[in-house]
Amino acid sequence: MPASARSGIAATGPKTTKTRKATHKATRAPEFSTQDFLNSTGLANTVVQFGRGEAVFTQGDAGEHVMFIQSGGVKLSVLSKTGREAVIAMLGPGDFFGEGCLAGQPLRMGSATAITQSAIGRVAKREMVHLLHQQHEMSDRFINHMLTRNIRIEEDLVDQLFNSSETRLARTLLLLARYGKQARPIRMVPAISQETLAEMVGTTRSRVNFFLNKFRSLGFIEYEGERPIKINSSLLSVVLHD
Q1: Residue 56: in which H helix or E strand, if any?
Q2: Which entry of 8, 54, 125, 130 is 20 to 30 Å from 206 by CA?
Q3: Helices 34-41 and 136-162: crossing angle, nearest 10°?
């Protein structure tokens, strides 16, 4: 084969590879965004703003909507007949809650409270059912949410049964910082009271205070009073080496 022909092949080869790579990047489907999808459907979903500590709904309220966290965070809790509150979940952007109405629960089994300034989307039960039946992407996203929630509940149970209160607190802080939830954790946990952390961990406020001070002295967190807590990745060592 002539040298010119060989050089021609050598020259066109890399260009073809680059072109394919560029085409692949151009045609790659964007990551599915539940919020963008809900907005594009034309559903009568509304977004409501809640300040820190405001109730999104209260235990015993009628369950008429499925909620979606556009921004901010929400605490789910239940109240016993004796007035004792138990925190059962802390949710962040992209999470659904209030889905019990889809399973036939007429009343809210617990309360939802904004833990920081939050924007909450609401989709009526009937519209959500229609959406899940007709839109496969949305249905897949919602099923993934439910399966992830079930896994989290199982992990929480194991955590309560077998781990020390120190390890449970470290795990709670990491979950609040959304480690394992997304590629880049937020690192800053919204301001949250020691009482709320104690309810989540299942210990006393004094023990939470002791461990927070210990984590700070070891450089695992940056913490001062009721301000947001900065979580350093070194806090993972408490969970991994318990």
Answers
A1: strand 55-57
A2: 54
A3: 140
pLDDT score, position 222: 92
Q: Domain extents for the chain?
A: 21-162, 164-242
pLDDT in tens, 62-89: 999 999 998 888 999 998 888 888 888 8
Distance, CA of 113 to CA of 54 (rounded, Å): 6
Q: The whole model's pTM is what?
A: 0.69
DSSP designation for 235: G
* Amino acid (1-letter code) at residue 62: A
Question: What separation in angstroms does the CA of 143 have from each of 24, 138, 171?
Answer: 29, 9, 25
End-to-end CA distance of the chain: give it in Å, rounded: 67
| CB-based contact 239:173 (threshold 8 Å) | no
Tell me the angle at which helices 205-217 and 194-201 cross, rounded to the nearest 10 degrees.
Answer: 100
- Token pair, residue 24, equals 């692949």
Contact between 80 and 68 (Cβ < 8 Å): no
In the prediction, which pLDDT does 181 show?
62
pLDDT exceeds cutoff 80 at 38: no
DSSP, residue by residue, 102-168: GGT--B-SSEEEESSSEEEEEEEHHHHHHHHHH-HHHHHHHHHHHHHHHHHHHHHHHHHHHS-HHHH
- Topology annotation, domain 164-242: Arc Repressor Mutant, subunit A (1.10.10)
Q: Which residue has the tokens 């399966």?
A: 147
